[in-house]
Automatic annotation (TrEMBL):
Lineage: Bacteria, Pseudomonadati, Pseudomonadota, Gammaproteobacteria, Enterobacterales
Entry EC no(s): 3.5.1.-
Alphabetical UniProt keywords: Hydrolase
Species: Lelliottia aquatilis
Reactions catalysed, as given in the entry: carbamate + 2 H(+) = NH4(+) + CO2
Database matches in InterPro entries: AB_hydrolase_1, AB_hydrolase_fold, AB_hydrolase_sf, Pyrimidine_utilisation_RutD
Biological role: Involved in pyrimidine catabolism. May facilitate the hydrolysis of carbamate, a reaction that can also occur spontaneously.
HAMAP family, per database record: RutD
The protein's name: Putative carbamate hydrolase RutD
AB hydrolase-1 domain mapped to chain residues: 14-241
Matching Pfam families: Abhydrolase_1 (PF00561)
Amino acid sequence: MKISLSPPPFVDAPVVVLIAGLGGGGSYWLPQLAVLEQEYQVVCYDQRGTGNNPEALPENYSVAQMADELYQALAQAGISRFCVVGHALGALVGLQMALDRPESVSALVSINGWLKLNAHTRRCFQIRERLLHAGGAQAWVEAQPLFLYPADWMAARAPRMEAEEALALAHFQGKPNLLKRLQALKHADFSRDVARIRCPVLVICSTDDLLVPAVCSTELHAALPHSEKVVMRQGGHACNVTDPETFNTLLQNGLASLLHAQERVL
């Protein structure tokens, strides 16, 4: 699996690994890259079966496999210690890595993540699956912004929505891979294991997230032994895209605090 590694801004700059959600594309983090690259060596990548890492995914594909694939790619690049920033499915991969590789994960940021799939989120994905089966990639892509962005934000950006739709269709990961990644997401359940995570964690959520209710982050925060939670009043599921100024400030401050806390633990 190919990863993209930015030059370190200074000697011994901490490594921050960015993991996108179900879409899987590293380009999801474009609103954060310029800011993060001033302080960190940043790893971005397209997840297996998506974007620049296209291949047919195996049956019974799992979040554990996603985490291991990323770890192996980082190890091949000579990266043995890193902080993970994950959005939604990416946050689940981060939780898995923190459990499986505690010696490597120095800190974790979960953005609109969860312990196990909330009933509302499951319903949303069931509806989206039906759209995919009935209308193919076009229907999936057309519906996607409704779950990602606030209504007023979308309404004010109609040309952008059209451009994003065309781009998403051109880079669609394919129905078989999407369904396998979606099943992996549905089956992930960290409710019994998350208390074993020892690294510091920052939980970020948005109160108007239509896809993953903020209560999911509240439950995750309560279950993690070394975590803090911050709440964005608006921004939707893709709050790092819709309000990057607010989000980037929270992320920068949060990363600095997490890494300082990790140093105290050491």
